[in-house]
Amino acid sequence: MTFGLTYPQLKALDPCEEEFKAVCKALGGARKWNGNLVTAQKARDAGVSFNNILWAASAMARTDKELERRLRHFAADCAARVLHFFEKERPDDERVRNAIQAAHDYADGKIDDAARVAARVAAGGAAGAAAWDAARAAAWAAAGAAAWVAARAAAWAAAGAAAGAAAGAAARDAARAAAGAAAWVAAREWQFDRLIYWLSEDEPAPLALPKKAQVSA
């Protein structure tokens, strides 16, 4: 199932006027776009930003259960990609790993709200126990993915925290702010690719969690 929007459909979601105009301009104007369905991939190719595509998908997810499911998986993937930052510092603490798995399981209806909330609370506790900024951010990414909030909020929270974890790790290792900024951009590009994948007809398998023996910086 491929997700896309026509001009009237996006307008009906009540977007920010300034951002709506920017999207319309990127897609060739309202007259050219109008009744044509624009997929996430087409929007990205035209220059529409990650934030605007994620916002549109999140707004659609309010009434589209399949899209909500995919956004929850996307959020969990964002957290999974930075799990190694947390497990490098706390290799025996499985709370963050369990929260990521819980986010995937909840998306697929394998666990109930109580189990998901318990995993989210545990991941928040793990974030408080972590000393390294990147480890804390990785834990918060997992907590965000497993949060009780709607999929749109979970996706924003997990993606932002995961990008922050990557930026924090790079800045610490290189001891300069430029490294952190570059890592943030790289993380966002990966997230953009992953988001488009989850919004495409053939959805990906959830990102596999690293085996404990393979965890590295």
Structural overview:
The structure is a single chain. With 217 residues, the chain is mostly helical. It folds into two domains: 4-60, no CATH class; 65-214. 69% of the residues lie in helices and 2% in strands. The chain is built from twelve helices and two strands, in the order βαααβααααααααα. The chain has a two-stranded antiparallel sheet with strand order 1-2. Helix 9 (113-129) packs antiparallel against helix 10 (133-145) and helix 11 packs antiparallel against helix 12.
List keywords for this structure.
globular, two-stranded antiparallel ribbon, mainly alpha, 217 residues
What does the average pLDDT come to?
A: 83
Helix percentage: 55-70%
From the spread of the alpha carbons, the general shape counts as globular
Count of separate DSSP helical elements: 12
User: Which residues form runs of ≥5 with pLDDT under 50?
Assistant: none
Q: How many DSSP E strands?
A: 2
Largest sheet: 2 strands, antiparallel
Beta-strand content bin:
under 5%
Widest sheet: strand ordering:
1-2
Order of helices and strands: EHHHEHHHHHHHHH
Structural class: mainly alpha
Gyration radius, rounded:
18 Å
Give the N-to-C terminal Cα separation.
Answer: 36 Å
Number of domains: 2
Explain the layout of strands and helices.
Blueprint: E1 4-5, H1 7-12, H2 17-26, H3 30-33, E2 38-39, H4 40-45, H5 50-60, H6 65-81, H7 83-89, H8 95-107, H9 113-129, H10 133-145, H11 151-174, H12 177-198
Antiparallel strand pairs: 1-2
In short:
The chain is globular, with a radius of gyration of 18 Å. The protein contains twelve helices and two strands, in the order βαααβααααααααα.
